[in-house]
Amino acid sequence: MPGYWNTIFLVQAFIWLIVLFEWKRMKNISKADKITIAAILVLSAMMSFLKVENVPGPITLLHYIFGPLGKLME
């Protein structure tokens, strides 16, 4: 569990570093680009609170969705 909080703080630190270093460039870009960058950073911050190693992958999702269809096709 201690490593989990370290990951959260590290991601938050990287997000703040990105904002600090890109602040001057962000003043000159379009509003749509600003919204895109903000959305990516917010999603990154939210995902840092999830335990991603315990989340099933996309293959598991595909098996869940198409598994019954495959049984019908046989």
Helix content: over 70%
Task: Work out the strand percent.
Answer: under 5%
- What count of domains describes the coordinates? 1
- What integer value in Å does the Rg equal? 19 Å
State the low-pLDDT regions, or none.
none
Mean pLDDT, as a whole number? 82
The overall strand count is 0
Q: Could you tell me how far the N terminus lies from the C terminus, measured between alpha carbons in angstroms?
A: 45 Å
SSE run: HHH
> Main beta sheet: strand number and arrangement?
none
Helical segment count: 3
Structural class: mainly alpha
From the spread of the alpha carbons, the general shape counts as: elongated
Task: Provide a short characterization of the protein structure.
The protein is mostly helical. The chain has helices spanning 2-26, 31-47, 58-73. It is built from three helices and no strands.
Structure description:
The chain is mostly helical. It has one domain (2-73). 78% of the residues lie in helices and 0% in strands. The chain contains 3 helices and no strands. It has helices at 2-26, 31-47, 58-73. α1 (2-26) runs antiparallel to α2. The longest helix has 25 residues, at 2-26. The protein is elongated. The chain starts with a helix and ends with a helix. The model has no long low-confidence stretch (mean pLDDT 82).
